Amino acid sequence: MEAEKSAYNKYGMRLVSEIANLLAVEELSISRVQYTVVDGRGGVFQNVKKLVEFSAENILLAGKKGRLRVTGRNLSLGKCAAGDITVLGDIQKVEREDVQG
After folding, report:
1. Rounded Cα–Cα distance for residues 86 and 80 (Å)
2. Structural domain boundaries of the chain?
């Protein structure tokens, strides 16, 4: 199991680096919440520091450099571990709310 986690982290970080290169981003901040949404099923949110709000229609997640507001229908929390949160349900919108400072 530990070997699988190491492989995931190694390949996952390589993927983030390749995406940053394709987008011509000098430094992709890993302190911001990053996410992947699967239409109609939910999504995975990484680098989450805090769950600020939660309801079946609205979830607010905080990272070091900003927040993400997830809105939809029948939202619920799935697996939560080491800064990763799985949100289940019909995600309709994800909005970034940057923290000034």
Report:
1. 6
2. 1-29, 31-101
- pTM summary value: 0.68
Give the tokens for residue 2.
């530990």
For residues 81-95, average pLDDT: 93
Question: Taking the domain 31-101, which CATH number applies?
Answer: 2.60.40.2000
Q: Which residues pair with 58 in a beta bridge?
A: 71
Q: What angle do CA 23, 50, 85 make, to 5 degrees?
A: 65
Q: Where are the beta strands (DSSP E) in 5-65?
A: 34-38, 42-46, 50-54, 58-63
The whole-angstrom separation of Cα 31 and Cα 45 is 12
Q: How far apart are the first and last CA of the chain?
A: 40
